[in-house]
Write a structure and sequence with these properties.
With 416 residues, the chain is of the alpha/beta class. It is built from 16 helices and ten strands. It is elongated and about 110 Å long.
Length: 416
């Protein structure tokens, strides 16, 4: 069975395109079911994060999967194709291993992608689109990631997007301890960001979310307060630092709302980070005076700083991955022989059963057991060797390759 991956990431597509093709978590299972039912794809899994959207498939044709990908997001395939990579078989396996190990991330060695891949697997399992091949691929990917982290320094001094946001904020506000921070959303990225900012002991921390319960749960961890998202506009002017990452399909902060907040602040600067895909904050907000807005792409250069200490580990990690790619491809190749092996064993079993039944009849008739056993063994030998013997006898004079194959199969040595 063929395996391939197609997708785009932070290296091949700008944020504007990545957010157009992101899959909402609540629609992922339905999307997978549609892909498998509409196209000749036997297995499928979709990994959709801030920095990448990738479709892993077993069987099917990459071109048809690309057409579905474009149609699903109401795009022309020709418009999407320049940003998309298609990776067949070995390249797809290698790519999955590199992604899991953090080698293909915007932040080299970042660990969050592993959890995101596990979420993708759970969604595919729930949708019924994860079969033997993809299941084995992802399980091996997780094992490779663990081996890389255990045996290299790829995860040392990890610079996350959240840590980068703190460093940027310190360029605007030298002392974050004097600032009030608002986090919009209550997911994993916001939790990570809050943890980093809390380490700088800001003046206050507030969490705004659609559901108050989740906001309160996160705010309590940092001795902060919670508010509903609908209450946020009237309080925006209170905050010096705003970090947003929700699952909203539309922006939740526009230019007009921020203009009012800046006026109320008497034009004191506001530092804003939009970690969401699609974006939570309208791009026009970044054009305003007194607003310092950074998106995921804006953070890319900063997060690359300090990665030198990890670069020496890349060669080690790549060597581990290359070895495991070979092992996985060997496993895949062995699976191609499974139907033939099954048929061979069924044929042998049929011959065995026939000879045993014949021997039992002879024993029941009172024949000498020793003679019956001799006949049984001769009968089995003749049946099992008939096909290769007949093929050798029928072979052409120069059919050396076939003779060599038979010699290898039966561990035969030539006799001079």
């Amino acid at each position: 069975m063929q395996l391939f991956t197609l997708g785009l990431n932070h290296q091949t597509a700008p944020l504007a395109m990545r957010e157009r093709v992101a899959f909402a978590a609540e629609r992922l299972q339905a999307a997978l079911a549609e892909l498998v039912h509409r196209k000749p794809v036997r297995e499928a899994a979709i990994l959709s994060t801030c920095n990448r959207t990738e479709i892993y498939c077993a069987a099917g044709e990459p071109g048809e999967a690309l057409d579905w990908f474009a149609d699903y997001h109401a795009l022309a395939a020709a418009d999407l194709k320049p940003y998309v990579y298609t990776l067949p078989q070995a390249d797809a396996v290698r790519h999955a291993f590199r992604v899991a190990a953090g080698l293909d991330s915007m932040v080299l060695g970042e660990p969050q992608i592993l959890g995101q891949m596990k979420d993708a697997v759970r969604s595919a399992e729930a949708a019924g689109t994860l079969g033997t091949l993809l299941s084995k691929l992802f399980q091996r990917s997780f094992a490779v990631a663990k081996e890389v982290r255990s045996n290299t320094a790829i995860g040392a001094n990890v610079v996350s997007m959240a840590a980068a946001a703190v460093r940027l904020a310190e360029r605007i506000f030298p002392d974050i301890a004097e600032q009030k921070v608002l986090f919009i959303g209550a997911g994993e990225m916001i939790e990570l960001s809050a943890t980093h900012f809390a380490g700088r002991h800001p003046r206050s921390i507030t969490v705004a979310n659609r559901t108050l319960e989740r906001a309160e749960h996160l705010a309590q961890r940092f001795s902060g307060r919670a508010m509903l998202l609908r209450e946020m506009p009237e309080h925006l002017h209170e905050f010096d630092i705003i970090v947003s990452c929700t699952a909203s399909s539309l922006p939740i902060l526009g230019k007009g709302t921020m203009e009012r907040a800046v006026r109320q602040r008497r034009h004191r600067p506001v530092f804003m980070v939009d970690l969401a895909v699609p974006r939570d904050i309208e791009p026009e907000v970044g054009e305003m005076d007194d607003i310092f807005l950074y998106t995921l792409d804006d953070l890319a250069d900063l997060v690359r700083e300090g990665l030198d200490s990890r670069q020496s580990a890349v060669a080690q990690a790549e060597a581990i991955i290359e070895s495991q790619v070979g092992n996985f491809l060997h496993w895949m190749k062995s699976r191609d022989a499974v139907p033939l092996i099954r048929q061979l064993r069924e044929t042998a079993e049929e011959a065995r059963r026939h000879e045993v039944e014949r021997a039992l009849r002879l024993l029941a008739r009172g024949d000498d057991p020793k003679a019956v056993l001799e006949a049984l063994s001769h009968g089995l030998t003749n049946k099992l060797l008939h096909a290769p013997t007949h093929a050798l006898n029928q072979g052409e004079e120069g059919d050396a390759d076939f003779r060599e194959l038979i010699a290898r199969l039966y561990h035969l040595r030539s006799r001079d």
